[in-house]
Amino acid sequence: xxxxxxxxxxxxxxxxxxxxxxxxxxxxxxxxxxxxxxxxxxxxxxxxxxxxxxxxxxxxxxxxxxxxxxxxxxxxxxxxxxxxxxxxxxxxxxxxxxxxxxxxxxxxxxxxxxxxxxxxxxxxxxxxxxxxxxxxxxxxxxxxxxxxxxxxxxxxxxxxxxxxxxxxxxxxxxxxxxxxxxxxxxxxxxxxxxxxxxxxxxxxxxxxxxxxxxxxxxxxxxxxxxxxxxxxxxxxxxxxxxxxxxxxxxxxxxxxxxxxxxxxxxxxxxxxxxxxxxxxxxxxxxxxxxxxxxxxxxxxxxxxxxxxxxxxxxxxxxxxxxxxxxxxxxxxxxxxxxxxxxxxxxx
Length: 347
What we know:
It holds the Pfam family OTU. One of its GO terms (biological process) is protein deubiquitination. This is OTU domain-containing protein. GO terms for molecular function: cysteine-type deubiquitinase activity. Among the domains are: about 25-175, Cathepsin B, Chain A, CATH 3.90.70; about 190-245. The protein has 11 helices and 5 strands. The protein has helices at about 25-35, 50-60, 65-80, 80-85, 95-100, 110-120, 175-210, 215-225, 230-260, 275-290, 295-325; strands spanning about 40, 125-130, 135, 145-150, 155-160. The protein has a 5-stranded mixed sheet. Helix 3 (about 65-80) runs antiparallel to helix 5 (about 95-100). The radius of gyration is 41 Å and the shape is elongated.
């Protein structure tokens, strides 16, 4: 009988933010802080379901609907396991975590706040006493509303409404000037981050492929859905194919140029070079010098030496020019300017 007896489950602590020793919430001061914004606190039951109760009050005006929102949030986490599993602490298994979060009275954490914002498609503003507001900004403020909660000493949530809100049904929209600024900053940050990422991808592909046509790289990246490796492979394969085609055409052209009525000797060999001209002229020059005296021959010798030096200089210069022609053109160097500022991220 003793073996079949199940061990009792540990008792979960009940959130009672008012009674907790050393952390009594001074609502009067907090209310005064919110009063400056034209807001008030709607208290919900502190039973471990306070976050979901606050959601239910904001969305329906009835905190007793909290179980529905708990179920929606947990189901969203299950459906997007790859996004949430890395953030589970204490080496807890994902399925065990979801099962525990489904139970009534389990406290919600940062993961549940993010999941709630995504599943109900709304941004969340969390007010804290004597602290800056905390925004969970997953959507443009033009598309969705923002719900407002208050957070007390890191252990309890309440709902926040306009002072003139009769609390009948969903909370009335709250407009705070800072919210608009945060929304603009978030949109600007996302746009800047996107542009910076694209610039980085283009530079990576450019360095790997030595292709400096940014429009072409941008088009290829778009076709492969931003996959940098796939874009690099595509451009390299295209370049190799183009080089192979050019080599075949060049070989065919050389064959046609070097063949003349069945004679396979290169045409260049038939061209008289400057050196050959000098050789042809040397015997004639020798005949001219035969009737001259020794002194006259010596006097004319510098002319021959100068002529040789000049021909060698021209030959060297011609070789250098040929070398320059044969060398492949260097690719223009890529000067990457300063990356655009990434900006601040809204949670």
